[in-house]
């Protein structure tokens, strides 16, 4: 996911002194796994993603059918035993109670912001209740920002995949890996001036002024 978006998310939540959260974005097509930004323990994130728990997560399932923010305590009172096992597993990693904010758009995209209670920073259910309106507005603003950056990422991703030749993609990837022109030339068995020629074509196709910007775009949209 776009690092600029992640930085913006961290900055905005820090204004509420919120440290432990999970942001999920589900594309309307539901073909790909959700994009996830989280400060939860990495072991839990690995389990969540590797076991595809987002498909059975009771928080996600409930968020799909409501626009109202809700506490997990409220949710646990109304779900069956199998779903409670999800919360028992999460609790092992310090994720015991919290609040979820959800936003849907007319196209069927869904974004969730899960905020975990934290005694150290006094993030309690009562605190989240008192900030409910502000946090929901924040999520809506973040949702718009995410869609805007996602659209831009898809624009550049398509340009790289469709407009760049195979050799240009190789040059771009090696540049993203940190190689200088001389090393790229040696790696590909071509002259350094040929690398510069390919790079000038890449810059023109991506509509950027220099190689540094091209490398940043390629890294940011995750094509390599």
UniProtKB/TrEMBL annotation:
Protein's UniProt name: Response regulator with CheY-like receiver domain and HTH DNA-binding domain
GO biological process: regulation of DNA-templated transcription
Transmembrane segments: none
Residue span(s) of domain HTH luxR-type: 157-222
Keyword entries, A-Z: DNA-binding, Transcription, Transcription regulation
Keyword Transcription regulation found: yes
GO terms for MF: DNA binding
Source superkingdom: Bacteria
